[in-house]
Design a protein that fits this description.
- The protein has about 70 residues and is mainly α.
- It has one domain.
- Helix content is about 75%, strand content about 0%.
- The chain is built from four helices and no strands.
- The radius of gyration is 12 Å and the shape is globular.
Length: about 70
């Protein structure tokens, strides 16, 4: 996760406030790793209480994190 956040900061030039939000989202998500169908379902259940906008943001952050993790 730290490498991904450094990548966003140094390569993608994301703002500190964005990095802070991403870090929070990824910390929450990390409680459901290693990722399995069951853990993914639990994560989706957890975020279902958030607003649609927040759900979308969290899913986008997690999706991009996982894509980057696969590339590495």
């Amino acid at each position: 996760m730290k490498r991904y956040l450094k990548y966003l900061e140094h390569i993608k030039k994301r703002e500190a406030s964005t990095i802070k939000v991403y870090r929070s989202i990824l910390r929450e998500f990390s409680q459901y790793e290693p990722l399995t169908r069951k853990s993914w379902s639990k994560y989706l259940e957890k975020i279902s209480g958030n607003s649609r906008k927040t759900q979308k943001l969290k899913l986008t952050v997690v999706k991009n994190y996982l894509k980057r993790k696969i590339k590495e």
